[in-house]
Amino acid sequence: MKLEQRLLAVAPWLLAISAVARTWVIVTGFGNESIDLYVYWSLAPHVLEGDLYQVTSPHSPPDFPLPFTYPPFGALVFLPMTWMFWGLAQWSFRLLSVLCLYWIVRVTLRLIAGERWTTDTRLWRQRAILWTAVLLWMMPVFHTFEFGQINLVLAAVVLAAMVARDQRVAGAGIGLTAGVKLVPAISGLYFLATRRWAAAVWSIVAFAASVGLGFLVDFNQAKQYWFVLFGDPDRVGPVATAHNQSLRGALSRTFGYDVGMSWPWLIAAVAAVVLAGFALRAAVRAGDALIGVVTVQFLGLLLSPISWDHHWVWVAPLLIWLVYTRIATWARITLLMLWCPVVFWDVIAFQLRRQPTIWTISRPGWLSAVGWAYPALALVTLVVIAVALAGTMRIRSTDLKDTVRPMNTVG
Predict the structure, then answer these.
(1) pLDDT value for 4
(2) For the chain, what percentages of helix, strand and coil (3-state, to nearest 5) are there?
(3) Where are the beta strands (DSSP E) in 302-385?
(4) CA angle 99, 193, 175 (to 5 degrees)
(5) Among residues 19, 26, 70, which one has the least CA distance to residue 46?
(6) Phi and psi (nearest 5°) for 28?
(7) Torsion of CA 137, 379, 259, 68, to 10 degrees
(8) Which of 152, 182, 226, 268 has the most CB atoms around it within 10 Å of its CB?
């Protein structure tokens, strides 16, 4: 704690240093191009021209022409950004992403702190600044900035919506976010698990509205996306590249071919759903909203055909939860020791340097094992959460009985 106190005293300076250092690395390297953000910026106007899914980004890599891969509603959301010239749009989005990272950290700490937030607000706000400085060095976060991705923005909206008390706000936030990018739709499981029926209904209504708006703008364009392109992950990118840290990506690298939704994937998917079900049940029983949200997001990342490594920004709130939540020491140490080397060392770049091209599926056995980094740890995390929270609940139950017995005896 003494170390934390010293770091908290200089937290604003640490954040400034981290931001400057990370910015320097990005603008002097590959990240200066922000190739994914350029896709949004350059192609979004085509949603009004009717050829959104026929064009590709002019700043694409030589071996991979980058198309617009989101629903038409996603392009409509990006339209205001296209009214700015490229440099302004690029830096505005980077600033927005930093603010969203801080917001994610702040909401995470507030959920963990509970009533302690109001009794020592200054301490928790200092921790939010310190954690933001630290998490800028987490690879999924760094790669989000490097590619100009929307992960931090979406995660901030999803987290805020899932813990919102107003059912309409919660549901609409998830529904509209899923309308931009489909994976957040998995968040509806949390509403069902916590019996927030109204929020679940509102999420469906909001999502349907986003889809309907896309059809209203251009019927044929929306029809092409939902009935032709929707089930084609190859259009999003090479399934077996090291960047893809979903179950399908890991299995494809292991088997040497795209497993699709065949028996290897089905077995892994069922296992993931079962483990996530136990973890979510334990989180709901423990009243731990944060880890319930993280559990659902991990499940979505595991089941999605493609989950780029920078999609795994949800590891950030998990790390904070592990540091401050009162759970079994073995669970805390195990997960921190497993996750920290993976997310703070660029294990993805390590693999990419050892594959001929991003389209190559076959891997040496040891390299395909390394390619399981995120999905394997996610599965382990679900198991540890389920066991640790169940154990915590039993301890609390025992403590409660021990407290109640003397009172009954005295009575």
Answers:
(1) 84
(2) 75, 0, 25
(3) none
(4) 50
(5) 70
(6) -100, 5
(7) -40
(8) 152
Query: Using 50, 70 and 90 to split pLDDT, how confident is the model at 211?
Result: very high
pLDDT digits (tens, 9 = 90+) for 146-176: 999 999 999 999 999 988 989 999 999 999 9
Question: Cβ neighbours of residue 363 under 8 Å, at least 6 residues apart?
Answer: 253, 254, 256, 355, 371
- Decide: 278 and 193 in contact? Cβ < 8 Å: no
* 295 touches 283 (CB < 8 A): yes
With tokens 């509970």, the residue in question is 114
Cβ–Cβ under 8 Å, residues 159 and 168: no
- Return the amino acid letter for 46: H
Task: Identify the CA nearest to 48 among candidates 177, 213, 236.
Answer: 213
Q: What are 236's two structure tokens?
A: 């999003």
Q: Average pLDDT over the chain, rounded to whole?
A: 91
Over residues 270-286, the pLDDT tens digits come to 999 999 999 999 999 99
How big is the chain, counted in residues? Answer: 411
Q: What's the number of CA atoms in the CB half-sphere (13 Å) around residue 238?
A: 17
